[in-house]
Amino acid sequence: MFERFTKDARAVVKGAVEQAEEAGARYVGADHLLLALIDREGSRGSFALAALGLAERRDSVRAAVGEARRRAGLTQAETDALAGLGIDVTEIVARVEDVHGPGAMSRDERSAGRWRSGHRPFAREAKDALTGALRFATDRHDRHIGDEHLLLALTVRPGVPAEVLADHGVTYESLTRVLYGDGEAKAG
To answer: Span 2-70+116-180: which CATH code?
Structure first.
């Protein structure tokens, strides 16, 4: 499948690996793909994000992803659902961090004191996003998988990336409008 990726999509995947390495993560997650996507410039995906106003809010996206990592990858919706059951995730995170240090519930190894270097496999949610990108390209009869397909895949798969993007006004519907038309400017 990787041979069908455009240069920009390959750069996103490589950037996601770098994001995971910088975070000390054991696996490359969908959140790393999102962070790599928002760092891109000059691609269809970056044009679409800029058209939707996300280019100016990169720091806000990074902060939202970081907060989700502190909650062990729980989305805000999951945190709210647990609150409905009487479970205060914020309190749990605070207590765990009091005992084990900041970021103890995140999935990175540095916070857990077990830093390793070397190959990082892709987590299930990242693999699902890559597979979703292939599906979007195939459904649109595109010969290649671009970073815009990766972005579209992240908007439809439940999880932190989709929630963070939606909170910043980037949804599947808004992306398809910018990328593929409906009388508005098209990316590319």
So the answer is: 1.10.1780.10
